[in-house]
Design a protein that fits this description.
The structure is a homodimer. Chain A is of the alpha/beta class. The first copy, chain A, is 26% helix and 23% strand. The first copy, chain A, has 13 helices and 24 strands. In chain A, helix 3 runs parallel beside helix 13. The first copy, chain A, starts with a helix and ends in an 11-residue tail after the last strand. Chains A, B: Its EC number is 1.6.5.9.
Chain lengths: 454, 454
């Protein structure tokens, strides 16, 4: 059995020579940046305990490390000139989510894959260039003195895989790790509600909705329990909450009546909001949205959630709202990772940046997107946590870093004397929100003071 | 807050009157079949402990209960005349899987949704007719004396949902619950290998493959570990194993070289088979398949697996084969549910049926698909566990039951004196297997003795 002996060596026969020759874009793999320290825990394991990407040498491309793969990080990576820089992205997610369409995937209007774009397609160098990488990992800490980030791989749900710690030296660091859904400290939200920020959330919502539809049809389930199972409660009347409620009511009218006819009279949607729905939109649009949603069967409830139990939400006035599906979309706040960083912050806990999106107290660190905000000293307001802001910041910063790189300041501590050029200026181009039944609101006002931010 | 008071009552405003009027196929929901016994465990719960569908009355449509939603059960349900019968399907899966294309979904050639068809679309009465149902549940037992099946709902992965026991009275029972992947009692298979029989399996394979591709790129992972992570081992050289190996090698050539270029030299595929691959196919086709697979980089290993550990497979001769992904497709055997039934069996443990696919010792019970086989007394061979057989049996039995129903024998114990007509005769129309790179085998021989069965 000679063929078995070299089982774990890929022979040349395994590669189709034709395909190989045509992939001209492919560059040979180089592992020169890798290092590994001896295993302190014992020598039996094949995996050393702490390895990483070493600092780049002056004759090598400088390395930009990007934390996060949302609107800000991905737009930045797309814009980086990979002739100047290598890019290493650290994120728990190997794709970007087109968040405005996420609500449509919960009920099957769109495929999940339609709203997720792999990072390797956004910045192809990450898939192919020898010094560029994507790491499926959490960042655990930033050592700004030594220009190093510390990371841990994500192996959630994978059997027999231990997470691995590693570090990456950066020349420039861009913190774009976003914000976290806020629960306002209300008990039971994390345990019982589903957020709507990732593709996995949309999948969970879909699974739960279908499961409840099926379970409510089982003999022995009483009317009251059926109503509970099929009561979809959405907390938060911002664009996400409203869009999801609209999609749900479309789903009920279009699909449940046809495909779950036995239980169609039991299902309905309630949207709970403490203030006005869509408060950042113009009054007339808000009134229109309220009318349309009510017409589609969405019950709008003004109330403040006090407590979330496994089968019911309790409002401040004591009202109990039983639910089978609970979706929580009440805006975002700083993540524990951002909280843990010893960097200047805004009042709301975001990383404070100057007019060029730099973190002023340290060298070569920038921050964009929902996790960052202008410092008070800039005299500029903290911008809202919107895709529009993040995307614009990503583009601006990519251009800025490319300019710095071209001027020879790409390496660590190399940009001190370089002219940075124009400051980042945000111009709001308007807001949109779909409300179901092929209807949507568009607010083209440019005034920023209507936008909420944390 | 008057609108909150009737929160769990759906008002008429929640339904679009236009949509309502156009859904002419919709029949009003009737719950007349439901019954519930008092809760023996205490009266605090809203859900009685044991409820069910009562026996049908002579003036009502007779009820066919179908266990399973595979090729056999779905083809049967599609063919049932719902003017004669109500249909209740009990299955852990609310859709049929088009199994021959499942392998293609693991690597993204096809969308998962393209190979899954909801049961409500296969037999629309299940979604709409007042006496027809789909129950997401396991069947726990069959009481042939009383014409009742006992079931338990499936709430896997759902938080805060207790499974519910219920029973269904049947007029005719069709057991089409299929077979189970066989492990031949080898230790560690269930814990470490992934089967390829459900959409969830294909999703797990895809997730694991991508996770391993990403993890193998992390700093500090040594060459040996990289090779292990990216070694995809397939056990079983039947059509499923071969098709999956072909798809994997396509994926490596097409996608890994482009999108995971850093690790492309580490990934490869090994197919382990104890005998010949594709043993039911003609010799010349088998030789062709072997050549093509080898050319695509699939390593064919002849060996018998003795033991499966978390990171390696051990063969009978002691050879250790490290793997990162292990897919197991060595055929099927009887499921614990089928084993538990006190019905006549074939030598291989399938439910024994007569020439009309009836279980001869009891009234009104039929069995089709992978879980059934001709009894020795029929003089016919047990048919192979193929979609082709199951599909043909489903069609035959639907016609037979429709004939019985038309002749007035649809109700329990009502078919004793009815002429059953032609026996079921299976004619093999040939076999197909894709082997990757847009190539496939087609074997049009009709001889049945080349087909393996358990």
């Amino acid at each position: 059995m000679t063929w078995l002996r070299n089982l774990i060596h890929v022979g040349s026969s395994s590669i189709n020579p034709r395909t190989r020759n045509t992939s001209l874009l492919f560059l040979p793999t180089s592992l020169k940046h890798f290092t590994s320290e001896p295993n302190l825990q014992g020598s039996s394991s094949n995996i050393p305990r702490y390895s990483g990407l070493e600092p780049t040498k002056p004759d090598e491309k400088p390395r930009i490390v990007v934390l996060g793969s949302g609107w800000a990080g991905c737009r930045l990576m797309k814009g980086i000139d990979t002739n100047i820089y290598d890019v290493a992205c650290v994120s728990p997610r190997n794709h970007m989510v087109f968040t405005p369409l996420l609500a449509s995937t919960c009920v099957g209007t769109l495929e999940f894959r339609s709203v997720a774009e792999p990072i390797g397609r956004i910045q192809p160098a990450i898939s192919r260039a020898p010094g560029s990488y994507f790491f499926l990992a959490h960042c655990k800490g930033v050592d700004t003195d030594n220009h190093v980030v510390h990371c841990k791989t994500i192996t959630d749900g994978a059997k027999n895989l231990e997470p691995l710690d590693f570090k990456i030296s950066y020349d420039k660091l861009v913190i774009a790790s976003g914000a976290e859904a806020s629960t306002f400290g209300i008990q039971g939200v994390k345990e019982n509600a589903i957020f709507l920020r990732e593709v996995s959330h949309a999948q969970e919502i879909r699974r739960k909705l279908l499961l409840n539809l099926m379970l409510s049809d089982v003999p022995g389930v009483l009317d009251e329990e059926k109503k509970r199972l099929l009561h979809c409660v959405v907390v938060g009347g911002g664009p996400t909450g409203v869009e999801f409620s609209g999609e749900l009511s479309d789903f009920i009218i279009r699909d449940v009546h046809q495909r779950y006819a036995h239980v169609k009279d039991y299902i309905h949607v309630t949207l709970i909001e403490a203030n006005e729905i869509l408060s950042s939109f113009d009054d007339s649009l808000r009134i229109y949205a309220t009318k349309q949603l009510t017409k589609s069967g969405v019950r709008l409830v003004r109330g403040v959630v006090k407590d979330v139990k496994s089968h019911k939400v309790i409002l401040n006035d004591g009202t109990e709202v039983p639910y089978g599906l609970l979706v929580w979309s009440t805006g975002v706040g700083p993540s524990p990772f951002i909280n843990s960083l010893q960097l200047p912050k805004t009042q709301g806990g975001r990383i404070g940046v100057d007019e060029w999106l730099r973190v002023p107290s340290v060298q070569d660190v920038f921050s964009i997107g929902d996790c960052s905000g202008f410092l008070e000293s800039t005299g500029k307001p903290v911008l809202p946590a919107l895709a529009q802001v993040a995307e614009r910041q990503g583009k601006y910063l990519a251009d800025l870093l490319n300019r710095i790189g071209k001027a020879g300041g790409g390496h660590a501590n190399g940009a001190r004397d370089i002219e940075l050029g124009d400051q980042f200026v945000y111009k709001h181009l308007g807001s949109m929100a779909s409300i179901g039944r092929y209807k949507a609101l568009v607010d083209l006002r440019q005034s920023k003071d209507l936008l909420r931010c944390y």
